[in-house]
Design brief:
The protein has a domain of about 140 residues. α2 crosses α3, α3 crosses α11 and α4 crosses α5. The protein is mainly alpha-helical. The chain is about 65% helix and about 0% strand. It starts with a helix and ends in a 12-residue tail after the last helix. It contains eleven helices and no strands. It is globular.
């Protein structure tokens, strides 16, 4: 999963949210340098990634992008799943996405000096370009993918990805909604972070 899902799955603890958010930048046993709740967030991040990569529905989604993106197909699925979460945010969380992201940005800015090495430049870009809200629109997703293809080793197949998202949106969305409740249940069972749900989604 990508940033928005990782943050949502962290519950309401600032320390867990922060740990989950920096999880990709904390390698090996380096997580022991952090407080217990931040460590919990880092370990949660690793568990979410492992569970996601192992899930058969996610593998089905990856196959749609494998010909163009090869080993990076999972990166694309992570981003597109965040898009589907963003446009359906009110089905999962009682607060509007704009307010939720603003609170998260404030948290990151307030802990800017605690970020792992190499992450501060990335965070500056994330805040400047409002990436979390960008996930909620097709132009925003396209901008994210093009930027990644220019700055990382992600193949420059943005046109392919966007065309597939438009033409197979219903199928990809159905796969997200088949998978995401499983992920929520896994996190709640194993980490007890207190994920907030919309009341109607608790049935």
């Amino acid at each position: 999963m990508n940033f928005l899902a990782h943050i949502y799955l962290s519950g309401n603890s600032d320390d867990v949210i922060f740990g989950n958010f920096i999880g990709d930048y904390v390698k090996g046993a380096d997580y022991n340098h952090y407080s217990s709740e931040v460590r919990k967030g880092i370990l949660l991040h690793r568990a979410i990634d492992f569970y996601t990569d192992s899930h058969p529905v996610v593998r089905r989604s990856k196959l749609r992008f494998a010909n163009a993106y090869h080993k990076y197909a999972g990166v694309i699925v992570d981003i597109l799943y965040d898009h589907i979460l963003a446009i359906n945010w009110n089905k999962f969380y009682p607060e509007e996405l704009t307010w939720y992201t603003e609170r998260f940005y404030y948290l990151v800015e307030s802990r800017f000096n605690q970020l792992p090495k190499g992450m501060q430049g990335f965070i500056t870009s994330l805040l400047k370009n409002d990436w979390l809200m960008a996930y909620s629109t097709l132009p925003g997703i396209e901008r994210v993918l093009r930027g990644m293809s220019q700055k990382t080793s992600l193949p420059d197949e943005t046109d392919f990805a966007m065309n597939l998202l438009r033409t197979q949106f219903d199928q990809i969305s159905a796969e997200f909604f088949e998978f995401f409740p499983d992920l929520i249940n896994y996190v709640e069972k194993n980490f007890a972070v207190g994920i907030i749900h919309k009341r109607e989604n608790r049935a």
